[in-house]
Amino acid sequence: MAKLNSEANEQAVTTRQWIGLQTDLPRLDCELALCQILGVNRASILAQPERALSLLQLEELDYWTSSLRKDIPFAYLSGEQEFWGLSLNVSPDVLVPRPETELLVESALSLLKRNAQLLDLGTGSGAIALAIASERQDAQVTATDVSAKALQVAKQNAEQLGITVNFQESHWFKNLGGTWQIIVSNPPYIDPDDPHLKHLHAEPQHALIAGEKGLADLREIISEAPAYLNNKGWLLVEHGYDQAEQVRHLLEQRGFQAVTSHKDLANIERISLGQYIYE
Ligand SMILES: C[S@@+](CC[C@H](N)C(=O)[O-])C[C@H]1O[C@@H](n2cnc3c(N)ncnc32)[C@H](O)[C@@H]1O
Hints:
The chain contains eleven helices and eleven strands. By secondary structure, it is α/β, with parallel strands linked by helices. The protein has two domains: 7-70, no CATH class; 84-276, Rossmann fold. The strands form three sheets. A seven-stranded mixed sheet has the order 7-6-5-8-9-11-10, with helices on both faces. It has a two-stranded antiparallel sheet with strand order 1-2. A two-stranded antiparallel ribbon has the order 3-4. The protein is elongated. The structure holds S-adenosylmethionine. Residues 95, 97, 101, 121-125, 127-128, 144-147, 150, 171-172, 186-188, 206-207 line the site of S-adenosylmethionine (SAM).
């Protein structure tokens, strides 16, 4: 990260003026880019709008803004993303954890019994598993992914945060043995023909796209989960904004009870869940 250069190298552009020039980018992204380049926090950017930017800093900012205009997520440029109050390392090998996924964490925590086991399928950066384990040291949390590179990122996050999670490489349940009180998953669920995908080109496509109009992985997880759940165990899955009804139907068809969906802050049914009771 660049340090402030000598006065001789400084240009007449101030941070306030520079932000004003980026009319097509969110103001917050611009402020955060300034934080990264100047090595200061946001309060400092807001408190000192007349700080002059050097030529080198302007060049570095150009790189950030042109990347953002190409839909490179801010988190890939900074290398980190906050999730559930945890600072997570992210790289293009993992999906950038989204704030709406915190609903899955919140719902799982409300159902998790004391000293119980929880499984997070398709953990990516480790976001969901680490958030839950950070809240509940009594829980035994296992997290899997089919991508070895994603698991490396997740393990590094667990180490840096000092949180214990058991990581395992697996295609959904394939390499797993045992049963869990709770299984959570935010699997790929985007229809390959979804026009929004072009804005997500920088993220791993295998983390986003699923066949059968986005339902293939959800269907596989729902179909196999009962064999890996304790009696009265819960499966909670995140899905697309328009998939709640189909996912509830899949859960009910597979014999889950108390099937319901929860809405996110935007009032969208974002996760669905059900309980499996052995006959
Ligand atoms: C939508 S991302 C979710 C990542 C993370 N849980 C989160 O919420 O930020 C889906 C994850 O599932 C993983 N995945 C895709 N197919 C898989 C499979 N067949 N078995 C296990 N994991 C898979 C991807 O590598 C990716 O990390």
